[in-house]
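Input structure tokens:
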């Protein structure tokens, strides 16, 4: 499944290159072979063979606190240097970045910022500025001081850029801003914005088996509401100005060429472009992810 050769019982599924779609396949395989249902939360809490075996042998499984829908998703917690922060794309979840875990420096924790409200308890934000301020507070609660390293795929990069500008406004230093085929505003993407039906189709195709059956319908309703609201807010959003250099990963080929030039009014520094042979929607897959993480590893090596 992972193409990783020999796998030890203590190796993490995500560190070996697992990502959200492969979690789906893993859960399906466990169901077919063992006849048991594993919710997505269990894979997050028990990502190694040993931990999954312990869960299956126990009525309740091990006590884990890794909530896959938490506002701050702990992708890896090892390392004593400043973390790497990934910001969710349009679906509101940072699960697409899980496969990056084993490709990034081992001396830095990796966190994902996720939208609030998948359990229906949080009101939807009224603006991107409100989201950005909230996300910056989440970052500062984990990492009170810089330098900060912010990254995001698609509209996650748009949020990461706005967060970087907000951190600068508050007097913090941003050491890395990485944008993965992102645009400054949803209306500039050159493609139709996703609709409610698009979000429902996406979750039906990819995530049905990732959530326990009893949770699925409410999860989808909440997820669709988050996605539709986020798309609406992003469509009318105007990016702030970030003062510093940025790294831009350009998915090629595409008719529009590159989005990097669209950022020049909003980035007062040099935009360093790296072309990645990948469709926009496939940049989190193992091949493109390895190229992207190699550049990021080089960028943070001198911090």
């Amino acid at each position: 499944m992972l193409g990783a050769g020999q796998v030890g019982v203590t190796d993490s599924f995500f560190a070996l290159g697992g990502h959200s779609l492969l979690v789906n396949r893993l859960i399906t395989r466990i169901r077919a072979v063992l006849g048991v249902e594993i919710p997505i939360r269990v894979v997050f809490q028990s990502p190694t063979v040993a931990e999954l075996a312990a869960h299956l042998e126990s009525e309740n499984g091990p006590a884990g606190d890794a909530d896959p829908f938490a506002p701050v998703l702990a992708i890896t917690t090892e390392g004593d240097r400043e973390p790497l922060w990934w910001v969710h794309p349009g679906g509101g979840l940072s699960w697409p970045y899980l496969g990056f875990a084993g490709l990034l420096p081992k001396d830095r924790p990796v966190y994902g910022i996720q939208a609030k409200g998948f359990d229906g308890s949080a009101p939807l934000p009224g603006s991107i500025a409100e989201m950005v301020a909230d996300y910056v507070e989440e970052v500062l609660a984990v990492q009170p001081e810089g330098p900060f390293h912010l990254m995001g795929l698609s509209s996650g990069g748009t949020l990461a850029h706005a967060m970087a500008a907000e951190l600068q406004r508050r007097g913090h230093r941003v050491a890395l801003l990485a944008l993965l085929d992102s645009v400054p505003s949803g209306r500039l993407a050159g493609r139709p914005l996703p609709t409610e039906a698009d979000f429902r189709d996406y979750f039906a195709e990819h995530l049905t088996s990732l959530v326990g059956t009893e949770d699925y319908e409410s999860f989808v309703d909440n997820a669709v509401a988050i996605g539709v609201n986020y798309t609406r807010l992003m469509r009318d959003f105007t990016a702030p100005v970030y003062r510093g250099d940025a790294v831009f990963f350009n998915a090629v080929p595409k008719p529009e060429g590159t989005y990097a030039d669209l950022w020049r009014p909003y980035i007062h520094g040099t935009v360093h472009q790296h072309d990645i042979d990948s469709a926009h929607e496939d940049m989190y897959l193992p091949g493109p992810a390895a190229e992207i993480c190699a550049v990021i590893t080089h960028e943070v090596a001198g911090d």
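The first strand starts at residue 72 and ends at 76. The chain has a mean pLDDT of 85.
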